[in-house]
Amino acid sequence: MGTTNNVLLVILSGFGLSDHSTGNAVRLANPEFLGKLFLERPLARLAAAGPAVGLRPGDPGNSEAGHLTIGAGRVVEQDLTRISRAIDDSNYR
């Protein structure tokens, strides 16, 4: 039999990766398991705000936009973004 490669997708809603500890409850808690996991296993940092998840530039991300983008496997333009673009283009009715 061949080797099986397993993949695990873990979504930690509201969780962010930052080197700053001020106001960062996760970093201040120093979670041993997550620290070890991040050091020993592959990790991808995803952009979770603005155009990366179908929102306007500068807009903070949210669970709906993030989960929809991950589930679709592509950026799905959010309603507010479409409406704002239509207004900017004077293309609304």
Summarize the structure.
InterPro entries: Alkaline_phosphatase_core_sf (IPR017850), Metalloenzyme (IPR006124), Pgm_bpd_ind (IPR005995). By secondary structure, the chain is mostly helical.
How would you describe what is shown here?
37% of the residues lie in helices and 0% in strands. The protein has a domain at 25-89. The protein has 93 residues and is mainly α. The radius of gyration is 18 Å and the shape is flat. It is built from four helices and no strands. Pfam families: Metalloenzyme. This is 2,3-bisphosphoglycerate-independent phosphoglycerate mutase.
Task: Fill in the keyword field for this structure.
93 residues; mainly alpha; 4 helices; 2,3-bisphosphoglycerate-independent phosphoglycerate mutase; phosphoglycerate mutase activity; manganese ion binding; Alkaline_phosphatase_core_sf; Metalloenzyme
SSE blueprint and pairings:
Elements: H1 25-29, H2 32-40, H3 63-72, H4 79-88
